[in-house]
């Protein structure tokens, strides 16, 4: 470009000169007259100006020429740079081509349909096809299966839609048909010149890596299986002492779960049961300096599993690939082994003590019978020193010779073989593995004799070859004297046993008479008391209402009557307990249900005294193995005391909580005055009311005694904690159990029965069989308040049976003690008669001892009520029985 500019400038200068010359010639031709001086001067001036202009132009031309020359030099330098750059580009292009073609990764360029547009040599070698033949070939032809083709096209679509590198793995078919694990990394690119988009993918053969990964996985699973198979606990920790993994034996031995183990510090797992000082020394002081530790013993009491002696083997391992350390901790529970070693040491010490005991003669011989050991007991018993007999004598030398002869003869006959007298007769049985204990006479050094019992054992080596014998003997003199004394004592004991049996027969008769007396006394006391309380309740609830003076009198009658009944009940309970005749029905009972019933029962008493009673909410449905009635009895007794001996407007709190190991504690806390230590010592003593007088609060002083006996009979414990001025906590514990399982369909049957609609009101018939006029009158007055019930009565069982057969009442009330035959016999007759078998019979008796109640229910009474009658309880039972009769009639 600069050369062309220079030529143009030279051409312009030549044309300019040519034009000047033409103009000068033209002017000369036009001048037809001679030039004047002025003209000539002007022309000279113009020529001079023109000349100067030409000089300026020449200067410009020279400057332009110099510039052209400089530009030419620069152009030449640029040409050289271009040549150099072109050479470098050519070299770079060649290098890129070599890198592209010979890269260890196959590079493919696809269009949107997956057709190969470009491929390097590695890619062609991967597919085993000439690269020229691969261009414009669909890549899907090299994919082994249809699923792989689907993955490939989905991959292309994903790459086209998303930015960045996308990955996938596809099984390809190699040149020899072998499968290749193709690992794809693809990105979408756009051609600058054509403006067309395509996909650039790198494909590597991951077959080896995949196989290696599978092998590594197999190796890992193999190693994990080995670790899990190991019966010793194993734990892997990182350098921060966090648990990376643990085997099943660890979880099983130390009773921890994986979720509370993995990822946690070893000191924190299992309620910090591994926060052991010696373990901290191991991890923080020893392992940082010694990467391997064997046989580090830790003795610790672990919560829940007790004392364990653990032998720890630790190894610190450096993992080069990730540049970090791990700690492998193997544990061996040597508790049993330590115990065995301790027992072995004790046994060894015991053996030494026995062998060196002065009370036994221990004589050991070699196989020929020559004495090798002669212990202290043998020296004391026989009068010889060990030095006098060891390696010199046999045990036969210190035995009665005549007895040796007699023993040899007896053994010869017994074993049918010839046995010579002497040492052979002493050990013949032991040599053949037969247990042999016999009596003989030993001869002391001084010639005196004494009877001895000798046990002989053959001593054998590892090959069961006899290497000697051990004879252990005891002086039998004392035993013979003891046997004589024992015979005398045996005869004396026999005589005493005869006397004791006779005394027991008398005691049994007395107990039976006592039980009969208690039952009879209960009936005799309750019968008149029932009339008193029954008619008092009728007067209290009668119409018209009693006047205030009458109400006060009735209240006093009821108060005295119920107190007398309580006294009778507690005395009878205590008498039954003391006589061992109180029977309990232990079964799983729900404490929540018992608490609700007791809450209802004590509510009136608490309300009357302004005491708030709080039953705390149960955390779980607790069940105990106990007698339901007796649990209610002792809980009501404790609640009644807590209310009676409380402060004005005080409180009573009932709680229930688990108590180790498998018990439940029921506590009754009051806000009363509390008990002093000397008062606590006198608790649970019969008739001891701790200084309380009847004027302050009524009580018998035996309620707590009965409670204590009942709790103990049910296998529990009872106690009290008290602080003067703050109150007391009376508690009892019973064995916890699981909820009873209902028979299949029981819940459904109950629900179905409850869902049945009630029928219309109807008139029921009630038959009361009772010989006591006062009781008859009381029940008749109670039934008179129920217009839906027709009342019938009979004075004896036979008349009651006749009325029942004739009128078929809906329910029968039956006394037990009736003239003629008892209520139990009458019940049996009614139950065996098809006409009356369906009628529910309720016992109403003064026989209130639990044994009598159980006997009545077992006989078939629908319910068993005791006298004196409690009006509310009586009415509730009556309604329940009528409802039962109604449903039974509906089913029939």
Walk me through the structure.
The chain has 892 residues and is of the alpha+beta class. The protein contains 26 helices and 27 strands. The strands form five sheets. Strands 16, 17, 18, 19, 20, 21 and 22 form a seven-stranded mixed sheet that branches. Strands 2-1-5-4-3 form a five-stranded antiparallel sheet, sandwiched between helices. Helix 22 (773-783) links the parallel strand 23 (764-769) and strand 24 (789-794). Helix 15 runs antiparallel to helix 16 and helix 16 packs across helix 20 (703-713). The termini are far apart. Residues 742-760 have low confidence and may be disordered.
Count every beta strand, where a strand is a DSSP E run of 2 or more residues. 27
Work out the radius of gyration: 59 Å
Work out the strand percent: 15-25%
- What is the CA–CA distance across the termini? 129 Å
Helix/sheet category = alpha+beta
Low-pLDDT segments: 742-760
Mean pLDDT comes to 79
Overall outline = flat
Characterize the biggest β-sheet: 7 strands, mixed
Level of helix content?
A: 40-55%
**What's the number of helices?**
26
What is the element layout, followed by pairings?
Blueprint: H1 2-30, H2 37-102, E1 106-110, E2 116-119, H3 121-127, H4 131-134, H5 146-161, E3 166-173, E4 179-190, E5 197-205, H6 207-229, E6 234-238, E7 243-246, H7 248-254, H8 269-272, H9 277-286, E8 292-302, E9 306-319, E10 324-333, H10 335-355, E11 361-366, E12 371-374, H11 376-382, H12 386-389, H13 401-415, H14 423-431, E13 436-443, E14 449-460, E15 466-475, H15 477-541, H16 548-579, E16 587-590, H17 591-609, E17 612-615, E18 623-626, H18 628-644, E19 651-659, E20 663-670, H19 677-681, H20 703-713, E21 717-723, E22 727-737, H21 746-755, E23 764-769, H22 773-783, E24 789-794, H23 797-807, E25 811-814, H24 823-832, E26 841-845, H25 850-859, E27 863-866, H26 871-891
Parallel strand pairs: 17-19, 23-24, 23-25, 25-26, 26-27
Antiparallel strand pairs: 1-2, 1-5, 3-4, 4-5, 6-7, 6-10, 8-9, 9-10, 11-12, 11-15, 13-14, 14-15, 16-18, 18-22, 19-20, 20-22, 21-22
